[in-house]
Each structure stands twice: as structure tokens, then as C-alpha cells.
Design goal:
It is a single chain. With 129 residues, the chain is an all-alpha fold. It is 75% helix and 0% strand. The protein is built from four helices and no strands.
Length: 129
């Protein structure tokens, strides 16, 4: 009987010892994973910071002007500019929550506006003849 008690105590001790060893191994594994993830997070933050800096550099007005100048683009003169009437810049009956323009409708408005301009120009030319 006494031997059975010792055997049971020994078995329970071994079982508990194995549980403690297993927990220690799991804890070590999780700590290694935590350190790896922390390093990965630091690396990703640095990459994000570098990408934000690169975006700012690419969006720089000075850079865009240099590129435009490099391919021969120049600022237009005031007499070369056409100011579109506000009616061309507004949407008709937009769907609720939608910010999409009807391309066909905008083109139709654009063409009708310029045909009206052409007719007005023709009538002015006829008056001065």
C-alpha cells in the first residue's frame, strides 16, 4: 500500500514536472515569436515612413514642374485659357451618396455649350460684315 502511494506521488510529480517543462518551452517559443514580431513591426514602420517620405517627394510641386518643363510643358498665358462656365462643372441629379459624373451628360453639355459659342461667334461676324 505504501509502495502504491509512493508510486502515485512519483507519477504525479513526473506529470507536474513535464507540465512545467512544457510551459517553459511554450513560454520560450512565444517570447521568441514576440521578439520576431516586434522586429517585423519596427521594420514595417520604417518602411512605411520611407514610403511616406517618397510619396511626399513624388508629389512635390517643384518636382512636378521640373518634369513638366523637361518634356516641354509651359504655363499657359492668360489669353490662352478658357474658363468653363459653372454649369459644365455641376452634376445633374446625382444619385444619393454618389460622386460619379455622367460622362455622356457632361460631354453633351460641353458640346452644346461650344455649339452655342460657335453660333454666337457666327452671328457677331455677320453683324460686323
Amino acid at each position: 500500500m505504501r509502495l502504491v502511494k509512493y508510486a502515485m506521488g512519483f507519477a504525479i510529480s513526473i506529470f507536474l514536472l513535464l507540465g512545467i517543462v512544457w510551459q517553459h518551452i511554450e513560454l520560450s517559443t512565444m517570447e521568441s515569436e514576440r521578439i520576431r514580431l516586434k522586429e517585423e513591426l519596427r521594420s514595417l514602420k520604417n518602411t512605411g515612413k520611407q514610403l511616406r517620405i517618397e510619396i511626399m517627394e513624388l508629389k512635390s510641386p517643384r518636382r512636378i514642374e521640373e518634369l513638366a518643363h523637361g518634356i516641354g510643358l509651359v504655363y499657359s498665358q492668360p489669353e490662352e485659357r478658357i474658363i468653363l462656365p459653372e454649369i459644365l462643372l455641376t452634376r445633374e441629379n446625382p444619385k444619393e451618396g454618389s460622386s460619379k459624373w455622367s460622362t455622356a451628360k457632361a460631354l453633351e453639355k460641353f458640346l452644346s455649350y461650344f455649339s452655342e459659342l460657335a453660333q454666337a461667334e457666327e452671328s457677331l461676324e455677320e453683324e460686323f460684315r
